[in-house]
Amino acid sequence: MTTATTRPGDRQVSPVFVGILAVTAVTGWATWTGYAEQPGVAVFLFVTAAWIVSLCLHEYAHARTALHSGDITVGAKGYLTLNPLKYTHALLSIVLPVLFVILGGIGLPGGAVFIERNRIRGRWRHSLISAAGPLTNVLFAAVCTAPFWLDALDGVPADFRFALAFLALLQVTAAILNFLPVPGLDGYGVLEPWLSYKVRRQVEPFAPFGLLFVFAVLWLPSVNGVFFDVVDAVLRALDVDTFSQYCGDARYRFWQESPAICSFGS
């Protein structure tokens, strides 16, 4: 089975993604050094850019796994370039997830790359393609939390620590939400190959509304509270303290007055 794309340019990293990485690096440096006149703006730009990087890697993981599973069309579609503008719907893939971070501090799953599933044989391959995206969020969360559980934060500026904690929170929320067995989300994609044809046909009409359903349920205070209790428990298990999570969220919203306790933590 051929797993290579036909054009060398299909795998070249997009300048758009390189630009997003550059913004992440520069604003991360500004957050670390305190060079920025407004630290909150630096934290906002750093977390937002890093979040977009994780979204690109999420979709890249889907596409790359699909490529090696038999869908050789993903290269021609631009999915291997890490360019977010190549996704099936840039609004759903990038703009909407960023908007939810700004409004609610939730790493909401974005849109998707289009995989030609008819080219892929074997249920395990289909499941792995779906799982590859959220597993990338798990890996990203591990990187963000590593300084916490490795006890390597001595001398790390508070604003940078807060930003890492908030970014880790986004990755954990994204991983949990993506793994939900809801039609339209990756969690259902993992299970779908193992369901009967009849069940798949019955569920198929609801797939476009899965993300909206999750969004609506999360607005219920009781569900929202339980969800963030789970997220907090995961982060605390990784030694990311609630204070850093809280102040990271507060610093991110630079347009609001930051609690005095977070300034004291700096």
From TrEMBL:
Entry's transmembrane regions: 12-32, 41-61, 90-115, 127-150, 162-185, 206-228
CDD domains: S2P-M50_like_1
Main location: membrane
Name the record gives this protein: Site-2 protease family protein
Protein's membrane topology: Multi-pass membrane protein
Protein source organism: Streptomyces nogalater
Similarity annotation: Belongs to the peptidase M50B family.
A GO BP annotation: proteolysis
GO MF annotations, alphabetized: peptidase activity
Compartments where located: Cell membrane
Cofactors that this protein relies on: Zn(2+)
Keywords carried by this UniProt record: Cell membrane, Hydrolase, Membrane, Metal-binding, Metalloprotease, Protease, Transmembrane, Transmembrane helix, Zinc
